[in-house]
Amino acid sequence: MPDLRLMKGNEAIAAAAIRCGCDAYFGYPITPQSEVMETLMDMRPWETTGMVVLQAESEIASINMVYGAASAGKRAMTSSSSPGVSLMAEGLSYLAGAELPCLVVNVSRGGPGLGTIQPSQADYFMATKGGGHGDFHLIVLAPASVQEMYDFVPLAFDLAFTYRNPAMILADGVIGQMMEKVELRPPRPRPTDEEMQKSVGSWAVTGKRNRRRNIITSVELDPAVHEKFNQKLQAKYAEIQEKEARYEELLCSDAQYLIVAYGISARIGQKAVELLRSEGVKAGLFRPITLYPFPAKSLAARARQLKGILCVELSAGQMVEDVRLSVESALPVAHFGRNGGIIHSPNEVAEAMKKLKTNCE
Amino acid sequence: MNIEEIVKPENLAYAKSKTLTDAPMHYCPGCSHGTVHKILAEAIEELGIQDKAVGIAPVGCAVMLYSYLDIDWVEAAHGRAPAVATGIKRTNPHLHVFAYQGDGDLAAIGTAEIIHACNRGENITVIFINNAIYGMTGGQMAPTTLLGMKTATTPQGRQANLNGYPFKVSELMAQLPGVSYVTRQAVHTPGAVRQAKRALKKAVEKAYAQKGTSFVEVVATCSSGWKLSPTEANRWMAENMLPFYPLGDLKDN
Amino acid sequence: MKEEIIIAGFGGQGVLSMGKILAYSGVMQGQEVTWMPSYGPEMRGGTANVTVILSRDRISSPIIHEFDTAIILNQQSLDKFEGAVKRGGLLLYDPNGITAPPARADVRVCRVAATEEAAKMGNAKIFNMIVLGAFLKVKPIVQLENVVKGLQKSLPERAHKLIPMNEQAILRGMEIVEG
Asked: Which residue of A has its CA nearest to C51?
């Protein structure tokens, strides 16, 4: 019998963290994701798995605590929402520069500035194009259900440790706040000291016993050495692009018109596809699951049969740039999106698609 | 007598600590950093904690600190060392964790991190190098720059109405219940160096014994930034810095 | 099977928790569910509403603008959602405080005097369970035993003693629903 629960997306993040063997969570409250830390504090994992949970004085401190724990090879995470993630930009750059694995969850809200506490997807650029100084990328996963909020926590840690790179779960206020059925997966214990030695002993700061000292740093003052390091990072990103792009297709086999959307927009897009199909429009849904790496090759392959693409985002149009790059302007790509915390309805998405169809015919 | 005949264990009055690497230090002549590094290495060796010490290196002149001490190191972003130390210590209570920070790092950009790490009573040691100037970026004003002191950004001397007042960080830290040990030391005389090393060892031991945060300020020289010779800098520090930043323990619980 | 429901009333009427219990019952019955509250700065006193969807199949959008059922617990919510019920759908309301009753002829309109009944039963807190009972009488989309299982799973251990009282309220709601 699977262990089924009804959970908020934010609660699922917390439950998954404890059950997948996360070592530490550091965070600072911000709407609409405060339930992550509240749930962790309520569940008291330090008494069971030994996971550390600490409320920091700021998002800047949170991400640097993550940096510290990650330096020691621990599975460390934080969560926040858009304005808080802006504050983490420096830390994310240092984490990427020091090649440290960790998980950052962004339950995004509308900006710019203090913006709104209502949902938004306007952090796509920040998440996928760096979100800090220097040539780096985060591995970015975009859950579209509460089950995926749960499942992507262990997945993000696995990817982060495989590539020694920070990973982000980019969610939105809807996915964070809504409740759905979640199957709790079998628990994964925290790694033992021996397992830690084996997996991270070559680089983590665990005290230099019977080995050369380990140094976690991102500074390199010799340009030639630093260029080599940057090339190594880029080679890593190329490998991630090659191996880790994930996506989902719905009703695509005979589709002529495609909605490309992630997160909550994919759910609304799916409903719009249902509406369009009921009116005889051959519509399908392409949902990027990894936003970095963007599933460009698969989208390009699908695009060969299409007449038009509608990119649906809760933003003024961010992912649409990657969609256009993927299909290299071979067909019309339109953007439809609401912002400021307004969520598009399935009907208006369907209407936007019909308009695109008229323009394409 | 050749050199081999002289350098024999029984003739040895002084040896380089094994915790110091062979990397030549990059510091200017007369800089206090090298001396503090040396006594820190000796303290680690004398306490026998080389295999469970983790240091957090700062941004500033001591950014390459990890080159000089043969222990595990983490390089932190500017000001964030206390948060990084918190992340390591909370997840690895068996480690000795210390943050090494300058006055810009700790008392300006990292004020929130140091106050809250101390206020939580993190069981870490903080070494605070106060030379009242920004050395690395070329001698600009620090939060701890004395009134009237000339720097690159206070060419007429620091004025309270324009630049605010010099910041007595140790006095502030001593107010926090999470902090168990606050001391202000210097390394400008052999006696002061010996005293500072004793303080460092005590600080590390107290933090490891979970008494809370240990905070060791070292009033230091920056002969380049102050535009003085090493001996002049030592004299200037004793005459001008120490009356405002008096040495000794501020708190010892 | 798919049922798209909006529950709307004042904050403090147990709107969100009623939706949660309904959703949990669906989980216990092996259904797919979503529970999507309107959220905002109004924590108390303002209007509160939640969209609950129960379905055999994977649910697409948790945010919808037309409903199979609207459960309405105050006049503001009636004004807002009466028009959003699908033709042939259900509008269930508590007449307490309603000055302009629903007028639509193309939906089934049912009434449950839950406020009054809760007062009679001497416990204002079971108000939402009376409403839930009324709904399940008209549309038995989840079985009572699964509601009880849902309560067991969602309530902390110390509150389990309250389950029989809630069950009674549900049964009472089933009895008194009209229309």
From this structure: A178
Q: Would you say A356 and A334 are in contact if contact means Cβ atoms under 8 Å apart?
A: yes
Place of tokens 């710019």: A112
Do the chains B and C touch each other, judged by at least 3 C-beta pairs below 8 angstroms? no
CATH number at residue A349: 3.40.50.920
- What distance in Å separates the CA atoms of residue A144 and residue B135, rounded to the nearest whole number? 50
Number of domains in chain A: 2
The residues, ordered by sequence, that sit 6+ positions from C82 with a Cβ below 8 Å of its Cβ are: C70, C72, C91, C102, C103, C104
pLDDT at B1: 76
Q: Quick: pLDDT tens for B108-142.
A: 999 999 999 999 999 999 999 999 999 999 999 99
Contact A207 B54 (CB under 8 A): yes
**Segments forming the whole domain that contains residue C129:** 2-176
The predicted complex's ipTM stands at: 0.95
DSSP-derived letter for residue C84 is G
Specify if B7 maps to a domain.
no
The closest alpha carbon to B106, from B215, B229, B245, belongs to: B215
Residue B90: closest C-alpha in chain A: A52
Considering the entire predicted model, what is its pTM? 0.95
The domain containing residue B170 runs over which residues?
26-252
pLDDT confidence of residue C43: 47
Residue B18 lies in a domain: no
- For residue A242, being part of any structural domain is answered with no
CA distance A228 to chain B (A): 20
Q: Write out chain B residues lying below 8 Å of A61, CB-based.
A: 80, 83, 86, 112-113, 116
Query: Which of the residues in chain C have pLDDT under 70?
Result: 39-46
Q: What is the CATH number of the domain that holds A72?
A: 3.40.50.970
**Residue position matching structure tokens 């830690």:** A196
Instruction: Specify the CATH number for the domain of residue C130.
Output: 3.40.920.10
Per-residue pLDDT tens digits for A52-85: 999 999 999 999 999 999 999 999 999 999 999 9
Inform me whether the C-beta atom of residue A72 falls under 8 Å from chain B C-beta atoms: yes
Residue range(s) defining the domain that contains residue A275: 247-360
Q: What percent of chain B has pLDDT over 70?
A: 100
